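Researcher: Re-running this chain for the archive, since the previous output was lost when a drive failed. Same request as before.
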Amino acid sequence: MRWEELRDDADGADEGALLSAAELRPPPRQRGTGRAGLGSPGEGPVLAGGDDEPMAIEIRARSIINRVPGASHVPFSWTINPYRGCSHACRYCFARRTHEYLDLDSGRDFDTKIMVKVNAGELLRKELAHPRWCGEPIAMGTNTDPYQRAEGKYRLMSEIIAALCDFANPFSILTKGSLILRDADLIAEAAAVTEVSVAVSVGFVDDTLWRAVEPGTPRPQRRLDVVRTFADMGLGCSVLMAPILPGLTDTEEQIDRTVAAIAAAGAKHVTPLVLHLRPGAREWYSAWLASEYPELVPRYRELYRRGSYAPKAYQETIAARVRQARRRHGLIRERGENFRENGSGAGEEADEAETPATPAQLELL
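Model: Regenerated structure tokens:
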């Protein structure tokens, strides 16, 4: 694998690195007990495929603040992703294809072979202190979830938030993970010195569908408890209502039920996004759909026949349903409130414009 030399247990791991392990390695820190249900890969190479148990693969990153490519249609320029792969195992996750860059597969490997950038906290402090860094907002949760299972052991987000707080650097977090509540006081401390935005992703509140399509995440109601906690703290919390799944969560009744629950949790506002299916996610989600809801296959083939995004007319229909539900439940968004507008955050389903100018020609199923 191209990344094997970055493993924390690799011989000669410092060779070619921008900073040596001796420079980066911090004093011993408190980690969580156990391994958060994740095994160790052992000393041999990590191979693609197979039915291996979930594992945490510790690597030493060479940089941690990432510039967003100019062609990306997102309201932020810099991101931090302490993990690659995600044990939330969402069938639709757009980031699945990034595991192929590691010579792993975008299906089960993405769910079970989690890269952990164990030096994220100390490396971030070095990068924030660099004279060239200008203190621009940093978005987290834009690729894989920073509060997935491994974070319970590694506590990388606690270190990252502490560093951003110490440098008064603005940041945003988008997550499905209730583990963010562990860092609530730290986030509040940061919000006292810089601009902070927190958003939780809740696309629907159907527990049966949740178990099938987002099996590694906290249940929707638990995520709404996160929203309520931040609201009670006076910090406020947005909800990214994403993804809205055609044929599964898109009726007026289903949308109204979800928006009602979001409003009852005290969300500042809600932003809907319709499912989009890029290569990697497309194949994985399509196989699941064909197995569990074969009657929906023709509809999806038609909706996504031109590329990764549903037609604009369908997106506008869904947006109108959400607007009506917001009005019914008192969630009237004021101009500039939306984290997609003010540039303080976004997430998995928000990482590109909802309707690209030139959609790729792809076959679904």
